[in-house]
Amino acid sequence: MADLDGGATPFADLVREALRPDGMTYRKLAERMVDPETGYAISSSTVFKVSKGQAIRVERRVIRAFAAGLGLPLRDVQLAAAAEYIGLVADDPVHGSTQEAAVVVAHVPGLAAKDMDKVREVLAQFASGDGPAPDDDSDS
Fold it and tell me: Chain centroid to CA 51: how far?
């Protein structure tokens, strides 16, 4: 689905998907949306706004609450919100993430892993230990 500006709505799509089961309401979904770190709770009107592709105030506690309520990894919800609200596509197109480390590449919309040869090359060098060491300014 697209918003009024013609952009994608991946964050809204996550919410709409959670609203699909019979009997699920904005209120029921909102009751599950509580930030586990601060206890901040999302209102049903905010769930409604997001599901319709409307802008909301995006804060860490809001995204954490949505992730908790949607039962999704925080990173997935963060990436969906970034794509929808600021047009930033950030993902792991080279599938380099592990349990210990996340590979996140910010890129223009529409770019696929096959278009990122240089990114893949740099990540492979870094992972192998053959690449250049990160900048170390301790000698300056």
Answer: 16
Return the amino acid letter for 94: V
Measured in whole angstroms, the distance separating CA 88 from the mean position of its chain's CA atoms is 10
Residue with tokens 């709409």: 16
Report which listed range, 17-21, 111-115, 116-120, is most confident: 17-21
Claim: this prediction has a pTM higher than 0.85: no
- Tokens 């040869």 belong to 117
Whole-angstrom distance, CA of residue 40 vs CA of residue 37: 8
CA distance 1 to 43: 23
Give the tokens for residue 93.
């197109």
Amino acid code (one letter) for 40: Y
